[in-house]
């Protein structure tokens, strides 16, 4: 365990990434706690307003992300400056992605059903950065030997093949598998070989004249969603809080 930690986490250049991830996760947790307290009307916290305008925390998040990003570029990969820039960047990224749904919809959907997307993006981002800290690199180059890395043809073929797997998984409507497959290629391979989800670009292109494949795709998607939608929503509610119920129709 100690050798793995020294080799992967404490490797030169990895400490800023670790600090950024820790700041990112901690900022998200603190922000969600504060916003839930504000929503419940508890504690000394309240919404920030300037001139009658509600200042969302994505605004200081963008500022901190820009400052931390440029600071990291200017400060290099070592020393106190690079560590400080990584922490500032992580804090900013946590504030920004906590309101990812607001940016996506250009509307204050924080406590609505659409606001769940922010929680999902934060969890996926933290997981991907954690995998990179654990030693994985995009498109599976980390699995190659030193001799293979010296051969540009092998590196190019490996990256191109794993990129194709991720692209196929995305075309089949499996966005999560495609994203994680960028870091762990076998995940994208699973998404690439399995049946496409109904409504995906792959299903529209190749299942149009195959009624059996189309019906099987719908049945598999229905079973998958019925099995996992409940637990996924429960985890999202536990992390980010329950969304407001939709307004009753008149």
Tell me, rounded to a whole number, the average pLDDT: 84
Percent of residues in beta strands?
A: under 5%
Order of helices and strands: HHEEHHHHHHHHHH
The biggest sheet, with number of strands, parallel, antiparallel or mixed sense and barrel status, is:
2 strands, antiparallel
Biggest β-sheet: strands ordered side by side in the sheet: 1-2
Number of strands: 2
Identify the overall geometry: flat
Structural class: mainly alpha
Helix content: over 70%
Termini, distance in Å?
Answer: 61 Å
Structure description:
70% of the residues lie in helices and 2% in strands. Strands 1-2 form a two-stranded antiparallel sheet. The protein has helices spanning 2-9, 14-40, 58-75, 79-98, 100-105, 116-133, 146-150, 152-171, 175-183, 185-193, 201-206, 211-240, and strands spanning 49-50, 53-54. The longest helix has 30 residues, at 211-240. With 250 residues, the chain is mostly helical.
Characteristics:
mainly alpha, 2% strand, 12 helices, single chain, 250 residues
Summarize the entry for a quick read:
With about 250 residues, the chain is mostly helical. About 70% of the residues lie in helices and about 0% in strands.
Set out the fold topology.
Elements: H1 2-9, H2 14-40, E1 49-50, E2 53-54, H3 58-75, H4 79-98, H5 100-105, H6 116-133, H7 146-150, H8 152-171, H9 175-183, H10 185-193, H11 201-206, H12 211-240
Antiparallel strand pairs: 1-2
Helix pairs in contact: 2-4, 2-6, 3-4, 6-9, 8-9, 8-10, 9-10
């Amino acid at each position: 365990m100690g050798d793995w930690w020294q080799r992967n986490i404490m490797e030169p250049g990895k400490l800023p990434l670790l600090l950024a991830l820790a700041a990112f996760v901690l900022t998200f947790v603190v922000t969600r706690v504060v916003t839930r307290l504000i929503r419940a009307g508890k504690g000394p916290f309240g919404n920030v307003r300037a001139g009658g305008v509600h200042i969302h925390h994505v605004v200081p998040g963008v500022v901190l992300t820009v400052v931390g990003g440029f600071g990291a570029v200017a400060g290099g990969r070592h020393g106190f400056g690079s560590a400080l820039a990584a922490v500032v960047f992580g804090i900013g990224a946590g504030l920004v992605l906590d309101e990812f749904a607001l940016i996506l919809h250009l509307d204050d959907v924080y406590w609505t059903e659409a606001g769940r997307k922010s929680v999902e993006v934060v969890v996926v981002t933290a997981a991907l950065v954690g995998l990179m800290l654990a030693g994985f690199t995009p498109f599976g180059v980390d699995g190659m030997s030193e001799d293979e890395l010296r051969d540009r043809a092998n590196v190019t073929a490996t990256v191109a093949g794993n990129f194709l797997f991720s692209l196929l998984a995305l075309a089949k409507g499996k966005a999560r598998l495609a994203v994680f497959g960028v870091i762990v290629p076998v995940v994208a391979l699973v998404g690439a070989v399995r049946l496409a989800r109904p409504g995906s670009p792959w299903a529209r292109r190749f299942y149009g004249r195959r009624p059996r494949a189309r019906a099987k795709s719908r049945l598999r998607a229905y079973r998958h969603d019925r099995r996992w939608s409940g637990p996924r929503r429960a985890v999202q509610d536990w992390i980010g809080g329950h969304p407001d119920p939709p307004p009753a129709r008149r």
